């Protein structure tokens, strides 16, 4: 058990004080009196002061004690979160006793049986110290479960009160009862935060209870039988698709370097997206067994899904491009181009396919304009000259795109950013990750996403931009060569549509306004060029290559 001198004592005091407030509140509701009311309201100031003292000690300890390891830091941070929520619970009890004055008859609330509520709350408050100090995951989960239980209690009382209000009697008392049980329900929210803080102190990672339960179910289904205290769960990244990704591995210190390379990636998120990713991985696995990760476990729960997949060794391509030496970058691009060539050639279906690049822009406009409302142009005119609005330009270009189609389809990655490609130098192999958008479509989509994901790297010194532009130039040449080899004469026209899409939609992830405006301007330039070319021979359309380089 890890202890912190001075801090532990204050922590115990605040837990005990809030427990006492719960008991005092129950006694007050059973038999209201001025003495009991004064006791509850006066102790609230003491709890507020305790919370402030604990917070100050937590911050002071974190900043002053450089010897603290990550686990100790997590334990201190958990104390701070727990104490903030305990102080909230104490406030809710004060609010409850204050509400009692609005009852016409103070025994009125006793008709609604709050004994169950106090049993739930007190049993969880009494479990906090043991859960924290004994590092007991089951008790942490027990604390968390108060939230749905108190939600259910509130729902039952709410329905009853609504029904009784319809009878037209005791309106003020009924509203007061509703407020009281609403505060009980909010105690459940605070207890959930406390339980999750204990889980954080054990796993070293912020994870919601539903995410933890999904992880638990997924690990169990995949055959992991060890105690959860032996698991190291560390976040790798949070994806822009809203999924949560983490690495899961045994915590044993004596693992060899090779064993430490192993482990699993846990991914949790929207059920539809997780299902789609599983299906995509399975299809990629059938076609190219070594290109994607193995799936070790899959779990569904309501609208959430979770997977446990193989951890792929290596570096993402953006790390290679930005940090590797020239030889490493050349080698990685050589392996990448060969991999892309094989996947596109193998999955090619010689049937025309319609594209929807402009529709993709339109579907993402809300996100773009939320970040950069300036990227929406109203119509303007100067004498006889007119500048179309963004809406009109997109609509016109969408109609133009209907005239075009790709001569064949391939199975695309679907989100071919450089951070979704892993390069393993030792194995001389490329791996694909984050595959829920994979589908049979125009290869130009993957091409444009790859090119713009290089362009939008927010580094502007000459050395880095020279390296990035070199990668863009080489891959653009690879695309044109592939198109020529497979008789695709409209590749540059479709790439203009796709690049306009990628530049425009990428602005929603870039808060540097000047850089985001560069991407927006390039998108507008391409859309205007497309519009001006309407009626021309798309096989003769020439993409202005300079648009690719910053």
UniProtKB/TrEMBL annotation:
Pfam families recorded: EcKL, PhoU
* Gene Ontology biological process terms in this record: intracellular phosphate ion homeostasis; negative regulation of phosphate metabolic process
Top-level taxon of the source organism: Bacteria
Show where the PhoU domain sits.
Answer: 30-99, 116-198
Q: Which InterPro entries match?
A: EcKL, Kinase-like_dom_sf, PhoU, PhoU-like_sf, PhoU_dom
Looking up PANTHER family in the UniProt record yields: PHOSPHATE-SPECIFIC TRANSPORT SYSTEM ACCESSORY PROTEIN PHOU
Please give the family membership noted in the entry: Belongs to the PhoU family.
The entry's protein name is Phosphate uptake regulator, PhoU
């Amino acid at each position: 058990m890890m202890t912190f001198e001075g801090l532990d004592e204050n922590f115990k005091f605040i837990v005990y004080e809030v427990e006492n407030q719960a008991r005092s509140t129950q006694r007050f509701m059973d038999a209201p009196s001025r003495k009991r009311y004064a006791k509850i309201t006066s102790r609230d100031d003491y709890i507020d002061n305790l919370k402030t003292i604990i917070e100050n000690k937590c911050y002071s300890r974190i900043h002053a004690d450089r010897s603290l390891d990550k686990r100790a830091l997590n334990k201190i941070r958990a104390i701070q979160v727990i104490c903030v929520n305990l102080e909230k619970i104490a406030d809710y009890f004060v609010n409850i006793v204050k509400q009692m004055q609005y009852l016409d008859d103070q025994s009125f609330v006793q008709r609604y049986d709050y004994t169950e509520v106090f049993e739930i709350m007190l049993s969880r408050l009494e479990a906090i110290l043991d859960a924290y100090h004994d590092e007991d995951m089951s008790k942490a989960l027990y604390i968390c479960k108060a939230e749905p239980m108190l939600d259910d209690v509130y729902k039952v009382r709410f329905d009853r009160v609504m029904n009784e209000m319809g009878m037209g009697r005791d309106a003020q008392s009924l509203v007061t009862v509703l407020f009281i049980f609403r505060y009980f329900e909010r105690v459940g929210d605070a207890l959930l935060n406390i339980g999750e803080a204990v889980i954080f102190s054990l796993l070293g990672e912020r994870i919601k209870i539903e995410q933890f339960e999904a992880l638990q179910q997924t690990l169990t289904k995949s055959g992991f039988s060890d105690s959860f205290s032996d698991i190291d769960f560390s976040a790798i990244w949070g994806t822009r698709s809203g999924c949560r990704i983490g690495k899961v591995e045994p915590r044993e210190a004596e693992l060899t370097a090779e064993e430490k390379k192993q482990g699993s990636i846990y991914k949790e998120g929207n059920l539809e997206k997780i299902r789609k990713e599983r299906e995509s991985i399975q299809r990629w696995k059938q076609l190219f067994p070594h290109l994607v990760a193995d799936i070790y476990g899959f779990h569904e729960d309501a609208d959430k899904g979770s997977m446990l997949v193989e951890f792929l060794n290596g570096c993402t391509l953006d790390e290679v491009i930005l940090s590797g030496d020239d030889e490493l970058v050349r080698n990685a691009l050589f392996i990448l181009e060969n991999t892309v060539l094989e996947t596109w050639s193998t999955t090619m279906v010689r049937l025309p396919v319609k594209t929807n690049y402009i529709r993709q822009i339109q579907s993402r406009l809300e996100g773009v304009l939320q970040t950069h409302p300036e990227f929406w142009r109203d119509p303007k005119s100067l004498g006889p000259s007119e500048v179309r609005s963004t809406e009109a330009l997109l609509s016109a270009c969408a109609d133009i795109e209907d005239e075009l189609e790709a001569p064949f389809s391939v199975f695309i990655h679907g989100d071919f950013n450089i951070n979704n490609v892993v390069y393993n130098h030792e194995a001389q192999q490329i791996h694909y990750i984050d595959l829920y958008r994979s589908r049979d479509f125009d290869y130009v989509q993957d091409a444009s996403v790859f090119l713009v994901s290089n362009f939008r790297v927010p580094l502007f010194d000459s050395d880095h931009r020279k390296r990035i532009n070199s990668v863009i130039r080489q891959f653009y040449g690879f695309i044109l060569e592939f198109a020529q080899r497979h008789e695709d004469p409209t590749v540059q026209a479709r790439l203009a549509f796709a690049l306009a899409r990628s530049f425009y939609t990428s602005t929603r992830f870039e808060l540097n306004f000047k850089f985001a405006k560069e991407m927006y301007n390039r998108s507008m330039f391409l859309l205007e060029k497309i519009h001006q070319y309407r009626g021309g021979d798309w096989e003769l359309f020439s993409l202005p290559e300079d648009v690719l380089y910053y």
